[in-house]
Amino acid sequence: MSDSASSFLHIGDIVSLYAEGSVNGFISTLGLVDDRCVVEPAAGDLENPPKKFRDCLFKVCPMSRYSAQKQYWKAKQAKHEKDKIADMVLLQKLQHASNLEQKQNETENKKVHGDIVKYGTVIQLLHMKSNKYLTVNKRLPALLEKNAMRVTLDGTGNEGSWLFIQPFWKLRANGDNVVVGDKVIMNPVNAGQPLHASNYELSDHPGCKEVNSVNCNTSWKINLFMMFNDHREEVLKGGDVVRLFHAEQEKFLTCDEYKSKLHVFLRTTLRQSATSATSSNALWEVEVVHHDPCRGGAGHWNSLYRFKHLATGNYLAAEENPGYKGDNPELSSSMDASRSSKRFHGERIKYKLVVVPHGNDIASLFELDPTTLQKTDSFVPRNSYVRLRHLCTNTWIQGTNVPIDIDEERPIRLMLGTCPTKEDKEAFAIVSVPVMEIRDLDFANDASAMLATVVDQFNAGFISQNDRRFAIKLLEDVVFFVADVANSGQPVLDVVMSKPNRERQKLMREQNILKQIFGILKAPFKDRGEDDGPLLRLEELADQKNAPYQYMLRLCYRVLRHSQDDYRKNQEHIAKQFGVMQSQIGYDILAEDTITALLHNNRKLLEKHITKTEVETFVSLVRKNREPRFLDYLSDLCVSNNVAIPVTQELICKCVLDPKNQDILIKTERRVPKEAHPGSVQGEYLGMDDYGDEDEVWLLWTDKTNEKQDKSIRQLAQEARQGNAHDENVLTYYR
């Protein structure tokens, strides 16, 4: 492609938009849990792009049609009571038309991919990280600037996603080619008022200015990140997320916290297949270094690279080992293979791999060296073997057998050093990561950060109604996320996990979502000093005014339940907080339901945590509620993987059959029916020898209000069949 053509903007290019006016900064987002668009001036500029530059990248897309999809959405939302069959037929036809329209859009997009964008044409901007379209809703006012229209990200896009691209300066006119670096006006087709970076600051994100649509003079500078023809699946590109797998040692390059400090290491796994040990802490974002700091693009063998740790945002680098004590060959010959020997070998490594907070640190630059003969200016294939050369020290990365966690009983973290000579065995496989896995990590990361702020608000003793509503919505999204079920408007607490998604369950633990969930379960009930009591009291949760908090806590327990389903490591992690869950049993927030699910098929945890106290708690719940589900919980605690546990069985039997707990049992008697035979009294209790064929079975029990009740089992069954809920419950309880 000629240089002149490459300076134009094309359909399929990936760009960032820099606002210039009263507010300067890149249009960005607040992560995957928030659909608002913002400009954060302090985050970075054209010379020093923001650290989270992935949040600022948009793909230029052609205009899509939405008329059939719009009709289908409207029909789906309208709940017609009459003529249901005709409605269903119509709905199916509309759905078919909607699907057809989506396919036509995809075909059209492929046809125009790579076409030069001209001023006056309509485009759409697809946010790369979230896969959502920048959309203006002309029916809603902006959240802060009330005379403006709201701008958000929309999953499917709609007619509000259509944007006219117009020149800011008069040297360009409609019909001219759009040049990369031009200042443009983004004018929504329907709203008719340009995209605007306002001066209004978000209260919950200090430093972030609202993006809305209003009559203004905001210009947007188009900066190219990657050309459409660089965006290939088979080539390593800036923005790709990869794992680096040391081929010889069969371990992933990982960054994680150990003793409150971040370390870079090769992580040992106990799994049979090392490649299946896919921790989210082993994900690295590739950055291809250019003269223009806002530029990415496809990587060549002669390019320079940075590797950004996805979970923490820090950069891979090499620096002098603080424990380095020189290379003394005499000492090494006398050392045995003990721990002190390994510690000594660590002292011989001059440079070791670390992470640094900023990408402009020269120590974070690396070159990739091919393991086969390649042209230096050819593309780096996405799944290839490479050796890593550290530019600053002119040394090559090498794996070692020196453990960082040397004091642990079973060390699993091996230090990485560098050596001056290139060795064949020190090769890493670049393992590409599916886009959906990255989005899952982004969502978990963002959700964890947002839930942490909710915990802080609870600890401070105040949470606003808006923040509480947002927290509930986020917890609902987390339930759907971990259960791997699409949100189609069904009640969240009824969501059933058909097949556990192990990777998402693992993210719940690794990205500290479970930690924040327990924070929400504990924080509202903490005493905040002499004058201020706790924000909530468990016994007051049933009050109508506390209904939102009760629902929030139920969602928390539902997240815990789905996170541990058939996953032993999470079960053990959650069981560390058993005391918290146990203290919240019986307040109708699903604590007992979660505990039973957690312990049911984990014998080790069952025997450890179920003692006389726990059984007595469940028995008191049976007495208080007279509900059969609490008896089901007790029966679940007797069994693990369809094998009876004698210790727990004995505990439960002793407790339930204790004379003081007789009131929770139902007594069975045989009595003479009303049409009794001569010489007997109706309703009289008979001895064993006096039973006749026509005698009736009667049940005697004590209800919630401590009053004695009795009824024949035949009458109970008849009334239960006629829809008497009370009698049906008594029969279920009796069973």
TrEMBL record:
Keywords, sorted A to Z: Calcium, Calcium channel, Calcium transport, Cytoplasmic vesicle, Disulfide bond, Endoplasmic reticulum, Ion channel, Ion transport, Ligand-gated ion channel, Membrane, Phosphoprotein, Receptor, Repeat, Transmembrane, Transmembrane helix, Transport
GO terms, biological process: release of sequestered calcium ion into cytosol
SUPFAM superfamilies: IP3 receptor type 1 binding core, domain 2 (SSF100909), MIR domain (SSF82109)
PROSITE patterns: MIR
Membrane topology: Multi-pass membrane protein
Annotated MIR domain residues: 114-174, 233-289, 296-371
Keyword Transmembrane helix: yes
Catalyzed chemical reaction(s): Ca(2+)(in) = Ca(2+)(out)
Cellular component GO terms, alphabetical: endoplasmic reticulum membrane; plasma membrane; sarcoplasmic reticulum; secretory granule membrane; transport vesicle membrane
GO molecular function, one term: calcium ion binding
Pfam family, one: RYDR_ITPR
Localization (cell): Cytoplasmic vesicle, Secretory vesicle membrane; Endoplasmic reticulum membrane
Protein family according to the UniProt entry: Belongs to the InsP3 receptor family.
Domain statement: The receptor contains a calcium channel in its C-terminal extremity. Its large N-terminal cytoplasmic region has the ligand-binding site in the N-terminus and modulatory sites in the middle portion immediately upstream of the channel region.
Assembly mode: Homotetramer.
Reported function: Receptor for inositol 1,4,5-trisphosphate, a second messenger that mediates the release of intracellular calcium.
Protein's recorded name: Inositol 1,4,5-trisphosphate receptor
Lineage: Eukaryota, Metazoa, Chordata, Craniata, Vertebrata
